[in-house]
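Quick question about two entries, pasted in order.
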Amino acid sequence: MHEPEQRAERGTGLGRLAATVERLRQEVREAHAAADGRALIELAKGILVERLRCNPAEAARQLSALAERTQLSQLELAADIVNQAAQDRLTELAGQFVVSAVEQGAPVSLQAEEGDASLAVRLRTAESGILAARDTQAVSESLLQHALAPLGASVVAVWAAGTDGSLTLAGSAGFASEQAMRWRYVPPGVATPARQALVDRRTVWFGDLSEVGLPSIGHQPGEKSGRVAVPAGNGGRILGVLEIGWPHRLSPQPPAIRRQVEALAELVAHTLDSHPVTAPQRPDTELVDLANGLHDPALILRPHLTAEGRLTDFRIQHTNANFVDFAGRSRSAVNGALMLEAYPMAAGEGGLYEKIEHVHATGEPFRAERMPLTALIDQVPLTAIADVSISRHGESVLLIWRVLDEAARVAGLLQHAQRLGRIGGFEENLATGEITWNAQLYTLLGLPPTASPIPLQLLPQHAHTDDAVAIGRFLRTLLHHHLPASTAFRLQRSDGVSRHIRVVAEPVLDAHGDLLSVRGAYQDISAQHWTEVALAATRDQLAHSEQQAAERNRLALQLQQAIMPPTHGPIEAFDLKIAVRYRPAEEEHLVGGDWYDCVILPSKKVLLSVGDVAGHGIDAATGMVILRNALRGLATTGAGPAQLLTWLNLVAHHLTEQVTATAICALFDPETRTLRWARAGHFPPIMVRRDEATELPLIEGVLLGALAEAHFEEGSLRLEKEDVLLMYTDGLIERKDRSLEHSQRQLLSVATAAVPSLEQRLDHLLTYSKSDTDDDTCVVGIQLR
């Protein structure tokens, strides 16, 4: 794979997943190596405890001090201590290797690199790793890492020998997962290097495996590869074979290396004796014969259980002669592998593995058409559509699939498209009179499958009489002018049902332009016809409703503009300057019920008010007129703001049709320069004094019209010279993405801007307000001079 392709693959989700898995595997290998080294050091500590009669802590200090004095690592010193205490074959082998390397000189490729551990360390570390390993796979990885990689070896395989002469791959290291899966099981009689070592009961060395022509795991034809296969026995029994491979031609090895390999085989035998590998159970002969007799790909699966009897997977024990993997792999690539190893994507929820598990548990067969099957090849998912059959036979499960080719898939798609579109196809041979219909057309026209097809010439006999002219024009264009044609008519079916049908046809001409046949399709358009009828009626009703709505909006806008003009000149009275800004909604259908009022009462007090009726349109506009005029009339009584809102609440609750509104009512007394005010669910006014803006205290007051009887609290303040009081409706600050509290804080910041006049202050507020709801907006400003 080229470098850009590798980068692209790493960029995908599967590439990242593969990189993560590889990183975790490397961390596990490093953790195992560290654990093996610690095990060897702990073993040396135990020897010191026994020899020196000291406690473990003192033994650890002694080991550290000895390593420092001898200038060795603790791991190398631990290996020496174990060798002196054991005096076994590994000790003898290490000594002989050192003597041989010094006196004769070992091959350069087999000498340890500078900084590598000594042979004794490698052998003892491999031994401790093997003894601590939980399975043969971990033993294989420990052998390659500690003992064989320094010798230049790149792969190792541990084979378990079966009683029938078969070989089962118990563990491997350095091979691709696909290779290990393909060589999971070697039947009796297959010639391999491991088989030769097992039969001859001796170590077999191959300088170049390609020269002898024996197949083996990880070996490609023509590839130069050195191999050695060593029987792994214990007590006269051969339990398996240790196979080691080099990525190059292997020259004859010295006796020290040969004895080292044989010593490692003894360690492997100990592992195979401690962790026996069970060969795959052979499937039933009758079931194999049944699978081999099928023309479709078939797999025989056996449950793979833990020591506690819990199902973890299914082993692929047999693939029939017609097996073709939908991902392009050969039979040997999946035969003997676990189902989730060969097809990991089958483990998805509701996927193939779940169906196999259900069939095995219940015995209930499973059948499915057009089921997606996915295989993961080099981290790339490949998906095929297949018909699947799963059945249980004793303890085995038979899995059969038939991958749909492109023609079958297209035919299936066409059949479903015709069914969903209520379409039936036909072809009529005008020379022989033979007519061909598909099955869908019989259902469409309400005829049994045994009925005779209807010729085009007899079509008027099965249609409504009013459609005879249209059908005649269709037949004339098609049969006489030899041109494609289509028409719609009302079909009178034999079951008494009337359907709206569209027929489309084209002529088939010979080389001389003579008409040979006609082919085409019928489509049931009844639902479309009645939909169009209902749509036309709905369109008319919608147009009428839009016209009424536009008229109501126009009346509401005219009413609002008559009472609340967008521009209003300033009012000056009693050293009080009042300015008003009103911004109507941009859309006519959003005309709302915002109002303001500024009037000098007979008592020489000034009435100031703003309000907002809930809703939009004519109802909101008329409600605004009622409440605004009612408040102006009630104010002539001389009552205070709280009392005025109490009466206005009765008007909203009893004298209108469910009108609710917020409002502020204020009375300014020029003699005392005192402003008394009350609120009904509205935002409190803003006081701008000496370039600082603050809200007036929030006093009690509920929404107008919400309750039959409501209590309103009254507040008052004395205005100072150049004070500015601002009253506004929510259209000034409402936002879809922010809370009202946040918008109110922004409004206080905008209100403190230095402006030369009251009118410019209000214009500044409208210009820099953060609202985005396109609602009506009223702003009333009061400035004492």
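Here is the second entry:
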Amino acid sequence: MSLKDKIIKSEYRSLIDNVVQDFYIPLLHESTSYKRAVGFFSSSALVEISKGIADMAKDGGKIEIVASPYLSDDDIQAIKEGYENRQKIIEGALIRQLSDEHEDYYSMERLNLLAHLISDGILDIRIAYTDKDNEIGMYHEKMGILEDKDGNHVAFSGSMNESMTAMSINYETIDVFCDWREAEADRVKLKENAFYSMWNNVEPSLKVLEFPNISDVLIEKYRNKDPNFDIDHEQFKRRILAYGSILQGMSNSSGAQVGARIPADVELHEYQKEAIAAWVGENYRGIFDMATGTGKTYTGLGAISKLSEDLNDDLAVIIVAPYKHLVEQWVEDIVKFNMKPIIAYGDPAHKDWRKKFSKAITDQKIRRDKRFLCVVTTNVTFASPDFQERIDKIKSPILLVVDEAHNFGARSYAKHLDDRFAYRLALSATLERHRDDEGTALLYSFFGKKCIEYPLERAIDEDKLTPYKYYPILVYLSELELESYEQLSYEMSKCMIKDKHGKYKLSKRGEILALKRSRVVAGAMQKLEALKREITPYKDDNNILVYCGATRVIDDSDTSSDDESDIRQIEAVTKILGNELNMNVARFTSEENMEERALIKEHFQDGGKLQAIVAIKCLDEGVNIPGIRTAFILASTTNPKEYIQRRGRVLRKAANKPFAEIYDFVTLPRPLDSVSGLTIEQANRDKTLVKNELARIKEFGRLALNSMLANNLIWDIQEAYHLNETDLEKEGEDFE
């Protein structure tokens, strides 16, 4: 066959076409010569250039590449000032682009193949740069010419660089011309003449030179075994036979990709790509510690896609999220990455998950087009005997991805973290477990080290999250509430026991008392009066969140359970907003089903009649409602995981949202001007609550646009209770 026998489109767009499999591989298979002018020279560009050339190289074809060096500002300045020999500077810049970071199987195989082709004289690389009036510039033209044994030519040009990002992620386009098409013959000839002029260094104002040392470095750096000329067939799961027919090797009957892949319309940020690369370097194990709203889910899905491709799609992926609504949220994104997940949890809509899971495991063993398997489930279902029994039957490598992974430090989940999972990924904005060093250590021991730390301050600085203003609103316990708080504190003091490490902790009864005490603070009646005062100026606005409820209880159920005091508070808040201020509000709690929640989110986002959401607990982890502009937080938690998650809900980017506002109802035992009249014993009893509230004010205030407001309040509280920084560093006794 020849190039003329191939179906060749006039244009290829990366959002529509698989350029490697639909253009490069079939056309290069029929070619005897490949001339390519690309963008910047780098090892990753060489990896991409190699896709499709193995067959033609094995049959004696010839490959000529022209690339441009990536010169830093210092390089260009040094050339201008003549500090060093120009070619030496360019050579140094080229060598810097030969990375040591390629560790995945396919990249190393391809670089080894290229090193052999250079050594055998099949592949030749020359370096181009512009040189006009002694000004050095980059050569940016991107085009290629293919020629077959019959002298037919195909030329192409366009915006696509030879890099993984351009080939598979960015939105790129190439235009294609064939010389046997009469209207296109002149275009092909122009490209041929241009490449000839470049290659022979006769193009005006363009220098194209050989760099023998670069070839030597490439050979020394990457050649380490016999070349793998079957690499294209292995990686892309299709065989292109000598007579030109294409067999679907491991892809499904429709020709679609079997495993996970990053979609062409998804552009990962550099920090996400770096996180994935670091995870690969840690043998596909690690932790993505990323602030809420910075793209943990897409980074995780990008990591799944990378491993799937590296393992030739022979992989079982198990994704675990805390709640049903988060599983559904994951599914929305999973399907974009070319996966068809089995949804597994106790719900009538998914009651047949056991049958589907078992069938998928069987199919994986006997069908080549079913070797990729993805299941997404809740924490509770993951820990169930039915689910664990099926994991034991999986024969392919397993990747375990755990969202909000701090929950897996609990003993009921941690006991299932074992060697069945060859590959591991933890996602969390707050992996450290509150007052549970043992559980935190277990998570690090199983998942490995952090592959990325992307904190809130960096996310705001880099415009990935919205800046915010913080308004701490002081409220105080009533006389009855304070009496109850002090009585519970006294009873808790009698419930201290030593753990196995000799440290004091609360007994089971003490933990129950601590929960009751935290609910006294969360349900302080003054909060309702203060809320009405603070929210009244916003009564005609939209995109408002009011966060009610007490400290969240972690248990082994799929839904939150709210006690009577929580419900009373949310009902009172709903009444204030809806009846007294005539606002359009909706509750967002565990009582609303999935469909109702989806509808609430839709109406809230579209800027219509729904002005405010009144929520309890279930917004703590993972729920994505970027439209929130103003939050009123009544829930007084001392658990950093919870208040960091709650702040993250408010800071997600959205249109027409230059900044967010957070009103935090800070609860103190009594007005500050009355503290001076207390006995030392009375003041000391206050300090546990005071220090816990101060910790949250400091955390919220330190990154706020109006940080002085929080700082002034902190100074006032510290002065009233005679607290210094040493006092604040000591943990309070508020076990939750």
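Reply: Residues 161-171, 237-256, 550-566, 731-736 have pLDDT under 50 and may be disordered. The chain has 28 helices and 26 strands. Hope that helps.
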